[in-house]
Amino acid sequence: MHFLMRMLRLFSLFLIAGLSYLCVSCAQAYFTRPLPVDAQNKYKFPASLRGTYSYQADVAVGVTKKAFIEFEHKNFILEHVDTVILDNRTEALIHKPSGSFQKRDGKLNFYEFSKSSFELNQDQFLRKASKDVYVLNEQKGSHWEVNPIVRKSAREVYVLYLKKEDIPSDFKRLENGEVDVSWTKKEILQKIEEGLFSRYRTYYKTNRIYIFERIESETINLDDY
Questions:
Q1: Which of 60, 132, 134, 145 matches a 20 to 30 Å C-alpha distance to 78?
Q2: Gap between the Cα atoms of 140 and 223, Å rounded
Q3: Residues whose CB is less than 8 angstroms from the CB of residue 8 and which lie 6 or more positions away in sequence, other chains included
Q4: How many domains does the chain have?
Q5: CA 37 to CA 86: how far, in whole Å?
Q6: Do 187 and 217 fall into the same domain?
Q7: Is the CB of residue 55 less than 8 Å from the CB of residue 34?
Q8: 155 phi and psi angles, rounded to 5 deg
Q9: pLDDT at residue 105, rounded to an integer
Q10: What is the pLDDT of residues 132-161, one digit of tens each?
């Protein structure tokens, strides 16, 4: 508990400094193995992380039992309902761009899925470091991206990043630039507390209801109309 409180104070300082939306599009650091090494792979998000989150204006994230779905929400007003396209459907998958829509009371709510969406599997899974810290490991060829997920409160979650330019010079690295470490739960929590993963995104939990599932059996292509 003492460690968690210190870690939360550290993140509060980040927020005060206005760093919650630092660039995360730069090249991420790669690791030689998933972390922490003394934790088992988990293929389901814990109940404490599931729900709907806001990230930026009109960008939301849905975390279900097995999937992380990031999408942009847009509203369209329909002057008339085209029965050929909409028929009796209430939801559908649109391939170009990929997404789903819902018609309701003359409005078309469109949800465009981003490339950041994924389902947990053998190449992308969680490992638990503590009650409020999980580590997302994603295999990229022969190496791994490692992103701690910190649940600061019931309504606020951080996804942490380590960029190549932020790797300390004394870290062991292979010729291809991979960070060669074997951190345990205790060690990766210590690295988080020290501020190694200094770049992050903040997600805020919301009560808004979105459509998360892509309805594969009900598909249309708008190019055909």
A1: 60
A2: 34
A3: 152
A4: 2
A5: 50
A6: no
A7: no
A8: -125, 10
A9: 57
A10: 999 999 999 999 999 999 999 999 999 999
